[in-house]
Design a protein that fits this description.
The chain has 110 residues and is of the alpha+beta class. Helices cover 27% and strands 28% of the residues.
């Protein structure tokens, strides 16, 4: 199964710069993504890579929550340093009840 509303995936800048690429908030996740060449000043590069990963791989789990459905997607991501094989990452998206745009919750190495 693929993530619903693939054309409308949403990645907030604050999720990238304030969490995934923040060594104080994201810790190990930030270390992982920074080592791959992603940088806070070019946060859109990581956002695009995470969206592409979600569009190119099937959903591996769906969890119902009080806010909506959470979808997990596992797959490789393109990196600024063109690392091969592509590092495998799990992205987690929430489709809030009544919404039509899945929003990135987190991403981490698998």
């Amino acid at each position: 199964m693929e993530l619903p509303f693939l054309e409308s995936l949403r990645v907030d800048q604050s999720k990238i710069t304030g969490y995934l690429l923040s060594e104080s908030a994201g810790r190990g996740k930030a270390t992982f993504f920074l080592r791959l060449g992603f940088r806070p000043e070019n946060w859109e590069v990581l956002a695009a890579a995470l969206k592409a990963q979600a569009r190119s791989n099937p959903v591996v789990s769906i969890v119902d929550s009080a806010y909506g459905k959470r979808y997990s997607v596992d797959g490789g991501i393109a990196t600024p340093d063109n690392r091969q094989p592509r590092p495998k990452v799990r992205t987690v998206w929430i489709l809030e009840t009544g919404a039509e745009a899945p929003r990135l919750i987190t991403a981490h190495p698998v």
